[in-house]
Each structure stands twice: as structure tokens, then as C-alpha cells.
Design brief:
Number of helices: 15
Strand order of the largest sheet: 7-11-12-17-16-15-14-13
Structural class: alpha+beta
Radius of gyration: 28 Å
Distance between the termini: 33 Å
């Protein structure tokens, strides 16, 4: 079988006779121009993805395309199909003799079409597939199929069918974008010399210290919970962050990153929260500047976004045309300009002077709520905003003390973006053993995190890092209102379908 890209290249390398109007058997004659091969020995049709076929600039010999029917239109003298295999937003038009129509050839059915790519008379497409045979691989009952031809289903509707919604245009486009964004993020870090680390999903640490953890137990442990015999001999949880494990690795590789699933047992039904989501996290050794961390965050965001826009423009256009019409212009401006930076102190003053009434009154020492974050972004011109230097008592134990007087702060940063609020969070890490030891003792965590203190005893260096919520990133660049619509199988309170 020819590879995904090799199929079309193979056709291009074939003799020009393949592209003539002669029969298939003569097209695949031997290079010595002797007698044709017997029909049963002739070369197989080149298998093309729909995206490859649509990208063809000229007619081609016999090809095979497989996919799912998006539309069927039968006329007196011709049968039209549109088939799609998930490789592109656009479908390939198939032109066939009406005699090839069957009752199993319906919207949603899986088919295999053999024929020739020919020049299309229509301006909207270069080629179409002139079918010589159509085989229904898997029939589909179009009447009971939840997705209907020629209907633009709302994202809320297809969310009910997690096993089928990937067949819709919107989710198909979203998942291709998600794939390209994943590749772009990996490429960014690899191009900048980062080592990719697979941090564990099962952990005994609570990185955020919020207690919103999913605890892991075997079925036997659940039945005999009174015995308190843990599989790992200690309580184990699904990870909320790979940061602490990355800090271990940053002590050997200087620049590391991870990209994987994280879990929060937060009982929230908001459009910004999931129980299972993906996090991009990075740690940088030998850095004493919060600005260094912020620069990597900004560069990552802009590079990944530019790459996604260039790699799948039609998929992105679908969202910017039908879901968030104004988003394209805002993002283009954002990519050209530097992100804004304000301190936590400045943020609180801006909020206090706002004419808007907030549900949560802004006060120094209180965490910024979503309504505050959105207002700050709006106040700064609907551009991404870094808020730096948060109060010491608001942040986890590992953030570096700024030693800045009565209003004690830590070298922490959150990146706020329009429509979402917090997208990224990061900090310089407390590398000084006495400071970290003192804080852990006050929290009663010194024994639990003895290994973390050891890192400060054996070759500790100034370092820092950040994490970015991948689903929130996709929400922002595409203008999708609900985070449940940017992940293949959303997990949230009271819902774990499939």
C-alpha cells in the first residue's frame, strides 16, 4: 500500500500514458512497451487520501479513495457523491453512472471508490473522481443517524454523541487543529533545545495544594477500605501537574517540558473547567528573571498559533466564520504586538477604580476571580496581559519569595487572555534551602517534601517554569465558548460518557 504522501508522488512518476484516455490495462503496460500484463496481475490502484486527491493539479490514472459519504445526489444521467475521510474539511466529489446507486449508498455510509481523477468543470475544485466502481463497506441508517446531511448542527447538540460527533464538520476541523497545535508545541520546544519528559499520571504529590484530587484505589481497596492497605503503600492520586517532576529533571537537563493529561476534582460545570484536560508545562534552569519565563510563554503562544493558522487555514476559517467572526482580526493584531505586563498591585488598583460592580469585591491579598481577569484584559485593550508578583500567601510553597517588605509577594505570573481569563501560570521557584525549608515547616509538609528539599541541597540553581492549559488555548484561538467542545471526550462532574 502506498503511503499517505507517496500515493500522489507515485502517480506523478508513472508514464504519461497513465493520464491518457486509453484503458487501464494499457496504461499500466510494461516499460519495454511489450504486451500488456494479464488483468489479474496489473498494478493495484494508488490509494489516495481525500486531501491528496483534492490537491492534485492534473488528471491521474486509476486511484482508490475510501471514506464516508457526506451527500448523495442522483440525477437522470449522473450520480453525484461527496466523500470525506477526515483528512480535510473539503469533501471529494465523485461522479458515477446512476446504475451504481444502491439503497445502502446513503449519507454516513462507508465506501470504497475506484476510478480516475479527471479535471473538474467546476471552478471550486481542480479534480473530481470519475467512478468505475463503488463498494459500500459499511452501511448507515440515515434516518436514525443523529447527524443529518446539509445541517449545521450546534456544538451543544453534537456534544450528546461523543461517539459520533467527530463525523461533524466542526469537530472534524477542531480535531485536525488540535493535532497540528500539538505538533507545533512539540516542535517549538524541540527547536529551542528542550528535552521532552514523560511525567507520571499517578503521583503521591499535590502540586497545587488545593486538595482537588482524584484518589486512586483498586477495586479490592474500595471493597475493603477499612483495612487501609494501599496498592502503593501510600495514598496515590491522578496528577494535577507535572511541575514537581519536571523540576527534578531540570536539575539534569536545564530545559525540559511535558505535555500530557492532568486531573482536577473540582465540582464546576463552568465553560472553562474540565475534570480531565491537557497541560503544556516547561521548566528552565539557570534563570533568575521572571521576564525570561514570560518571554517563553509569549513566544510559545505566538509560534504555535502562527503555525496552526498556516497549516490548517480552512479548518481555522470555519470557526472564525461561523463560531467567532471577529476572532481572526483580534488574533492577527495580537500576534504583531507585545503582550502587556502589569503587577498584581496595579491590577487591584485598576479593579478598585472600575465603574463596574463585581460580585467579588477586589481587595489586596484576595485572588483574582474570572470577572476580574476579564475586566483587566478589557481595560488593557483586549490583548493578552501578564499579571506579576502575587501576594505570598496566595500562592503555593514552591514560588520564590520576592522579599519586598510588608506587602510580601512572590515572583509569580499569570497570563490572562480575552474571553477566557487565565491561560498560563508560572513562577520562579524557591531555590534557597532555608526559605523553602521554613515555609514547608510552617505548612507541616517538611517530611512529605523531603525529596524536594534534597533538590536544594545537591546542586540547586535558580530556575522557573510555567504551565498552559491546552484546551483553554484552543478555546481562545478559535473563539469556542465552551471548553467541552475542544476536547474529544470531555470529562466533567456527573458526566463520563464512553
Amino acid at each position: 500500500m502506498l503511503g499517505a504522501r507517496g500515493g500522489w508522488r507515485a502517480l506523478r512518476r508513472c508514464p504519461s500514458s497513465i493520464f491518457s484516455s486509453s484503458s487501464f490495462s494499457s496504461s499500466f503496460s510494461s516499460f519495454s512497451s511489450s504486451s500488456s500484463l494479464p488483468r489479474e496481475q496489473r498494478a493495484p490502484a494508488a490509494r489516495l487520501r481525500v486531501r491528496q486527491a483534492l490537491g492534485a493539479r492534473e488528471a491521474a490514472g486509476e486511484v482508490q479513495v475510501q471514506g464516508w459519504v457526506r451527500s448523495v445526489r442522483s440525477q437522470k444521467e449522473v450520480l453525484f457523491l461527496h466523500i470525506n475521510d477526515g483528512s480535510s474539511l473539503e469533501s471529494l466529489q465523485v461522479v458515477a453512472d446512476p446504475s451504481m446507486e444502491s439503497r445502502d449508498l446513503t449519507f454516513g455510509s462507508a465506501v470504497e471508490v475506484r476510478g480516475k481523477l479527471v479535471k473538474s468543470p467546476h471552478k471550486m475544485q481542480n479534480v473530481e473522481l470519475k467512478a468505475e466502481s463503488i463498494r459500500v463497506v459499511g452501511p448507515c441508517d440515515a434516518l436514525s443517524f443523529p447527524l443529518k446531511a446539509k445541517e449545521r448542527h450546534p456544538l451543544e447538540y453534537v456534544r450528546q454523541f461523543p461517539h459520533l460527533r467527530c463525523r461533524s464538520n466542526a469537530l472534524g476541523a477542531l480535531l485536525r487543529i488540535r493535532s497540528e497545535a500539538t505538533a507545533a508545541i512539540h516542535s517549538f520546544f524541540q527547536d529551542h533545545g528542550y528535552v521532552h519528559i514523560h511525567t507520571p499520571i499517578i503521583t503521591s504529590n499535590d502540586c497545587e495544594g488545593a486538595g482537588e484530587l482524584f484518589q486512586i484505589e483498586t477495586s479490592n481497596e474500595t471493597q475493603k477500605s477499612a483495612e487501609k492497605n494501599h496498592f502503593f503503600n501510600v495514598p496515590a492520586f491522578l496528577t494535577v501537574s507535572g511541575q514537581l517532576h519536571l523540576e527534578v529533571m531540570a536539575g539534569a537537563f536545564t530545559h525540559v517540558f511535558t505535555f500530557g493529561p492532568t486531573f482536577r476534582a473540582e465540582n464546576s460545570q463552568s465553560r472553562r473547567h474540565l475534570a480531565e484536560f491537557y497541560m503544556v508545562e516547561a521548566e528552565l534552569s539557570f534563570t533568575e528573571s521572571l521576564q525570561d519565563i514570560m518571554q517563553v510563554m509569549e513566544d510559545l503562544f505566538k509560534t504555535a498559533t502562527s503555525t496552526v493558522f498556516s497549516r490548517c487555514p480552512r479548518d481555522v476559517e470555519l470557526f472564525h466564520k461561523y463560531v467567532a467572526p471577529a476572532q481572526k482580526g483580534r488574533l492577527e493584531q495580537m500576534l504583531k504586538n507585545k503582550f502587556v505586563t502589569i503587577s498584581y498591585n496595579e491590577a487591584v488598583e485598576i479593579l478598585k477604580q472600575a465603574s463596574q460592580t463585581f460580585a467579588f469585591k477586589p481587595e489586596w491579598g484576595c485572588d483574582l476571580q474570572t470577572e476580574h481577569e476579564k475586566y483587566l484584559v478589557q481595560h488593557c485593550g483586549e490583548v493578552p496581559v501578564f499579571v506579576i508578583n502575587y501576594p505570598y500567601d496566595l500562592k503555593p510553597f514552591y514560588m520564590r519569595d520576592n522579599e519586598d517588605g510588608p506587602q510580601r509577594t512572590v515572583a509569580a505570573v499569570d497570563l490572562l487572555v480575552p474571553g477566557i481569563g487565565e491561560l498560563c501560570g508560572g513562577s520562579l521557584r524557591e531555590e534557597r534551602l532555608p526559605f523553602l525549608q521554613s515555609r514547608l515547616q510552617r505548612l507541616g509538609l517538611a517530611d512529605t517534601y523531603q525529596w524536594y528539599l534534597d533538590l536544594r541541597k545537591f546542586g540547586s540553581v535558580p530556575h522557573g517554569g510555567f504551565g498552559m492549559g491546552f484546551e483553554r488555548y484552543l478555546q481562545y484561538i478559535l473563539g469556542v465558548d465552551n471548553i467541552k467542545d475542544v476536547i474529544p471526550f470531555p470529562r466533567f462532574p456527573h458526566s463520563c460518557l464512553l
